[in-house]
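Reopening this ticket.

The earlier resolution said the output was attached, but the attachment link was broken on my side. Pasting everything inline this time so it's all in one place.
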Amino acid sequence: MLSRCLLVGLFLIASGCGRRPALDYWFVDALEKVFPDDPAGSRRLDEPRFHAARRSNLSIQLAVRASQHLGGFYVDALPLTGPGLPIDSVRVRWVEYVVVTSNTDNTPEEELLRKAPALFPDALLESFPIAIEKDKTRSIWITLRVPPNQAPGEYKGVLRLRLGTDEVTRLPYTLVVHKAAVPAKIPLAVTNHFKLGDAHVSQFYGVTQLSDQWWQLIGNLARFLGAYHQTSIVADPVRMAIAEPAGGGLRYDFRNFERFVETFESAGVDQQIEGGNLLARERRPGAPVMLRAWTLEGGKPVIRRLAAASPESQQFLNGFLPALHQRLEARKWTRRYLQGILDEPDKGETEPYVATANLVRRLMPGVRTMEPVGAKQDLGFMEKTTDIWVPCLGSFDDKLELLGGHVKAGGELWYYTCLAPRGRYPNRFIDFSLVKTRILHWINFKYGFRGYLHWGANNWGPDPFKDTQPVINQGRTYLPPGDAYITYPNRERRSFYSSIRLEQMREGIEDFGLLNELSKKDPGRAAKLASEMVKSFVDYVRDPAQFRRIQQQLLGE
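Inline output:
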């Protein structure tokens, strides 16, 4: 029979407290990553005392390690009690390790958590019980959702550890709820691009596009993203249109596009509608810029890539764009809709870019254009053609005056990360610290950016737990670990698992919301706190304890 002897965080197997310890447990800051070989007590918090704003999410991390294999392990989170109503929105998950084959290159060793190949903590899974393997540390992830009207003050929580039905121990902790509240609408555009093509969703979910099961998946995706502050609906009207022959040309039905947008709106993702890029490039030397267009072949409508300058391409745009604009106007979506032209255009592609952007302006009045771009080149071609500039972090350190000029002229600025930047810049790679992920949205506030974009939310390879570095661009680009995705497939529920990186990204977005609220009453104080956290794009807080000190100042304000 299991004894319940407890001694400084050790659960002892068999009767009597003199037996060999079987289980260690200790709280670790959720900005730390817990590895399988971490010794018992590594980076233990001095006190399990946590701080949160109202209408916020808070991550708490518990590490466990056993000196022998233990099956049937459970963690139950009891409601927190204090001066207000009990806080009962408490979710318990466990952190799965994933394989990192090689480290992010062009990055100093001190900026990496450890040398690859190695197992790194990342995916968040939900099914209990789990097994605690002998001499391998495992992390339990607890997420608290603080209601918007929660009474401020100290709340007491308890984590109950069990082996089967036998209780091991109860671990108390304290949550301090501050008066500060995250705004209901955080004024930051956030977009993670998802891959939803037939081959991808069939592989991971066994569904085909536009089937009832596919629409169920889309609904689950919308609700998932809504919980993580996604604001953009990434909906490609060209691919989702139904084209029909009509009078020697084509007529377009946008019912699937509209249903897609409505599905996200019903989940609370109801701001920008990103329509994707009209143009694309061929991955071969000397190839012209191409256009994705509907055309007739043997009397049947098909999508083909055509040279952007060809008469057929211009004919398509002159028919398709007004038809789309008419539906946007009818749905009152025109000002929300953002049209992309060509992803990351460079100096050799400016002519088709400008021509197509000008055509969008003429045929779709009121529609704004946006584009991710490397800012190390001359951006003059974007000044009159692109409303929202989305430069890559790491490409504009010396271009802030130019970018500020775009804002003064009525434009808007977001930024994006992808397989860059590396080196000393923050990013959300798996072998980087979680502080580097969370700090991204302090950068947004400090430098006046109003949005964040990432291309890879679910660009999984065949086994995303064992291959975190899929190859793209026809085998030419080997990605840094985790760049391709920040979620994992939940096949059973046709949904998605989060990651500890996505959890910290959400909390960073909420930090932005709090900074923005503070700036309304004391802009100098908000700017000072942001500058204490981020001195430059490569000089920023890296220590979790220092991060928490500045965060608590923000909450106190």
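Reporter confirms the inline version is readable. The first strand starts at residue 6 and ends at 7. Confidence is low (pLDDT under 50) at residues 1-8, 13-21.
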